[in-house]
């Protein structure tokens, strides 16, 4: 009897082990480019050329990082990027929370219509919108004689009005979470004499801090990684880390020729620059990853 | 109006001053939009009002009035919170979308006095399709990229999510790993990684050269082996797009009512049958969402060949913007078409099933 039980238990166990094995293999495929970036970053120039060196460098060197940081003007671009993405993320989070709250709590007229519009706003490809947006901002700056193109103002404005990067996703995350907060709490606060904004702030916002953090992080990261809209409206007048990375090759040449040195661009420098530009995001992910996953769980993604 | 609904008045009095101000401002907006939408929205409205009407039928006419006040309050508050988004949508999405369609038929030039827009008929389209040598190949390249990528992303992410949903331990670890690319993925980073892959290729043709199976395939058809090697090389990068679909799929898998699985098990279905008969049909709406998301994400992929063309055309303020609008419009038409096809694929079967049931 017992033996039979064991045999019956064995099969699911093997199955589980197999699943773990497959998932671990997939994880390696996922992480392989990152591993490659990291290994190349710490290789010395001799190791890069040496075909025998595949993953582990023979001699660790920080030279690549130094050169890449110099070319990227790290301290300046890092500060700019953090500030820029942070401001945009705050704007986007606020508006998404308001919109998600409206969709989750109120049965207003045309609600379904607006919901469909929110989804459509996501589907419409960005380039189709960018040309009139650019023209609007250009003609607007000519009428008020304040330069807008080349400043973050257009993007802040768009984020403040809920049209930032992937705003739809952020709204849906909030909507999903607010749907899970019992309406009874709102009603209780309302009976106690709180107005709608008070209810929103003291009941809903206070309860969804982890969701707010998650949405902020998503927004921060997406704004950080966004280059098309930024390239069109900001035009590299504020130096940001990712846009510097996309210009790395030419920047490297100009810096090298200005300093008169015989540096030649190679894989290791490029990978070091890539590493630098993703390092802040990796650090962010490492620190708040737990909150992040908790937040995702709270948004109903695991539904436990 | 104030006399009519004392209930709402009370509620409003309970609110602090400044909020009331914004509300009354908003009321005008609400009523305006409501007037505009009454004809189109009768169906939806009827649906939304159903519970209330059934209530008011039971009660006295006084209660009916209360229901109306409630609805009005819901309208007002809903629009109060939605307002920033709606304004932004109209200014930055709806208007530009329509404007691009118009601009694609025009010749746009920047002058000292502002934008000079001349209607030029179909000439932009003729240039895009017949005179410009770059546009059509770029568009075809884009299609050749987006269709296989989307398939791979959706299928792989579903498999990963399905496997993960069967685990109890270490799920968090895997989710952390699979979600990581979402955080760091950006155009410049991707192109650097792809560049690195390409230069490695130049050194040793393909990393899969030594494998026995690859040698076998190569002996039959070197061409096929080469493309397969290329796909495998890019697989890591393609997999990076699965981050969010995986999360969405896990979300969907866990929302399936467990009693369905229990019922199927009692009816002696094995897990393979359960997967095909219950899990996949139940997950179909989420697969649609994932597909649309993936297409949108791949569309904004920086190495997208059409983007480069649109960018350079946009950069040319003297006469380039009209072409840029044409390119962008054709491009989005293609993307929307693909999304439409995806929609039909996922919708069609559902309706067929409904037909069978009926």
Describe the protein.
The complex is a heterodimer of chains A (304) and B (358). By secondary structure, chain A is mostly helical. Chain A is built from 15 helices and no strands. In chain A, helix 9 (183-191) crosses helix 10. Chain B is mainly α and 358 residues long. Helices cover 82% and strands 3% of the residues of chain B. Chain B starts with 5 loop residues before the first helix and ends with a helix. Chains A and B meet through helix 1, helix 4, helix 5, helix 6 and helix 8 of A and helix 2, helix 3, helix 5, helix 6 and helix 7 of B.
Helix content of chain A: over 70%
Spans of chain A of at least 5 consecutive residues whose pLDDT stays below 50 are 299-304
Mean pLDDT of chain B: 72
Rg of Cα set of chain B: 28 Å
- The tally of helices of chain B reads 14
Q: How are helices and strands ordered from N to C of chain A? A: HHHHHHHHHHHHHHH
Mean pLDDT of chain A equals 81
* Largest sheet report of chain B: 2 strands, antiparallel
Proportion of β residues of chain B?
under 5%
Q: Could you spell the SSE succession of chain B in H and E letters?
A: HHHEEHHHHHHHHHHH
Shape annotation of chain A: flat
Helix content of chain B: over 70%
User: What oligomeric assembly is this protein in?
Assistant: heterodimer
Beta-strand share of residues of chain A: under 5%
Biggest interface: chains and residue counts? A-B, 102 and 107 residues
What best-fitting shape of chain B do the alpha-carbon axes yield?
globular
What is this structure, in a nutshell?
With 304 residues, chain A is an all-alpha fold.
Q: What descriptive keywords fit this protein?
A:
heterodimer; A: 304 residues; mainly alpha; 15 helices; disordered C terminus; B: 358 residues; globular
Summarize the helices and strands and which ones pair or pack.
The complex is a heterodimer of chains A (304) and B (358).
Chain A: H1 2-41, H2 45-49, H3 63-72, H4 74-105, H5 111-123, H6 126-144, H7 153-160, H8 167-180, H9 183-191, H10 196-207, H11 209-225, H12 228-233, H13 241-246, H14 248-259, H15 267-298
Chain B: H1 6-13, H2 17-58, H3 61-103, E1 106-111, E2 114-119, H4 123-131, H5 135-165, H6 171-184, H7 187-204, H8 212-220, H9 222-239, H10 243-255, H11 258-266, H12 271-299, H13 305-315, H14 320-357
Antiparallel strand pairs in B: 1-2
Helix pairs in contact in B: 2-3, 4-14, 5-10, 5-12, 6-10, 8-9, 10-12, 12-14, 13-14
């Amino acid at each position: 009897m017992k033996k039979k039980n064991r045999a019956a238990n064995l099969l699911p166990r093997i199955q589980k082990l197999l699943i773990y094995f497959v998932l671990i293999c997939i994880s390696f495929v996922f992480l392989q480019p990152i591993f490659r970036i990291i290994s190349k970053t710490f290789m010395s120039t001799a190791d890069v050329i040496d075909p025998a060196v595949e993953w582990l460098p023979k001699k660790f060197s920080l030279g690549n990082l130094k050169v890449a940081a110099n070319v990227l003007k790290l301290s300046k671009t890092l500060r700019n990027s953090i500030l820029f993405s942070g401001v945009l993320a705050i704007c986007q989070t606020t508006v998404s929370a308001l919109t998600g709250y409206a969709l989750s709590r109120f049965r207003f007229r045309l609600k379904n219509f607006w919901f469909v519009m929110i989804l459509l706003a996501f589907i419409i490809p960005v380039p189709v919108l960018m040309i009139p947006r650019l023209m609007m901002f250009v003609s607007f700056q000519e009428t008020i004689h304040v330069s807008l193109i080349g400043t973050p103002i257009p993007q802040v404005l768009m984020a403040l009005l809920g049209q930032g990067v992937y705003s739809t996703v952020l709204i849906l995350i909030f909507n999903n979470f607010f749907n899970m907060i019992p309406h009874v709490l709102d009603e209780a606060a309302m009976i106690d004499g709180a107005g709608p904004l008070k209810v929103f702030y003291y009941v809903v916002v206070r309860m969804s801090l982890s969701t707010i953090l998650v949405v902020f992080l998503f927004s921060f990261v997406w704004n950080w990684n966004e280059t098309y809209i930024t390239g069109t409206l900001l035009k590299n007048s504020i130096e940001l880390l990712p846009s510097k990375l996309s210009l790395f090759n030419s920047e490297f040449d100009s810096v090298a020729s200005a300093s008169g040195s015989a540096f030649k661009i190679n894989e290791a420098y490029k990978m070091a620059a890539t590493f630098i530009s993703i390092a802040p995001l990796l650090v962010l992910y490492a620190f708040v990853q737990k909150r992040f996953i908790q937040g995702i769980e709270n948004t109903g993604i695991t539904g436990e | 109006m104030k006399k009519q609904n004392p209930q709402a008045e009370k509620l409003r009095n309970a609110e602090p001053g400044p909020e009331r101000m914004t509300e009354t401002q908003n009321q005008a907006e609400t009523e305006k939009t409501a007037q505009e939408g009454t004809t189109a929205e009768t169906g939806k409205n009827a649906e939304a009002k159903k519970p209330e009407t059934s209530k008011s039928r039971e009660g006295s006419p006084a209660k009916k009035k209360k229901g109306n006040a409630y609805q009005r309050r819901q309208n007002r508050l809903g629009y109060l919170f939605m307002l920033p988004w709606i304004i932004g949508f109209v200014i930055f999405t709806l208007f530009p979308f329509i404007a691009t369609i118009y601009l694609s038929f025009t010749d746009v030039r920047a002058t000292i006095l502002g934008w000079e827009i001349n209607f030029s008929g179909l000439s932009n389209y003729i240039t895009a399709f017949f005179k410009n040598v770059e546009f059509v190949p770029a568009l075809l390249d884009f299609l050749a990229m987006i269709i296989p990528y989307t398939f791979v992303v959706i299928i792989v992410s579903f498999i990963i999510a399905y496997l993960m949903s069967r685990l109890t331990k270490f799920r968090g670890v895997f989710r952390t790993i699979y979600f990581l690319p979402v955080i760091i993925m950006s155009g410049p980073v991707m192109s650097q990684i792809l560049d690195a892959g390409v230069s490695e290729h130049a050194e040793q043709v393909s990393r899969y050269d030594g494998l026995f199976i690859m040698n076998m395939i190569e002996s039959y058809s070197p061409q096929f082996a080469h493309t397969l090697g290329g796909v495998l090389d890019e697989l890591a990068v393609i997999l990076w797009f699965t981050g969010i679909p995986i999360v969405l799929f896990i979300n969907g898998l866990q929302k399936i009512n467990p009693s369905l699985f229990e019922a199927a098990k009692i009816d002696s279905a094995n897990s393979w049958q359960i997967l095909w008969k219950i899990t996949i049909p139940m997950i179909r709406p989420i697969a649609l969402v994932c597909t649309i998301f993936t297409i949108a994400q791949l569309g904004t992929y920086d190495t997208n060949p059409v983007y480069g063309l649109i960018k350079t055309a946009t950069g040319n303020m003297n006469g380039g913007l009209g072409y840029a609008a044409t390119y962008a419009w054709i491009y989005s038409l293609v993307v929307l078409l693909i999304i439409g096809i995806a929609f039909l694929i996922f919708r069609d079967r559902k309706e067929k099933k409904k037909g069978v049931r009926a």
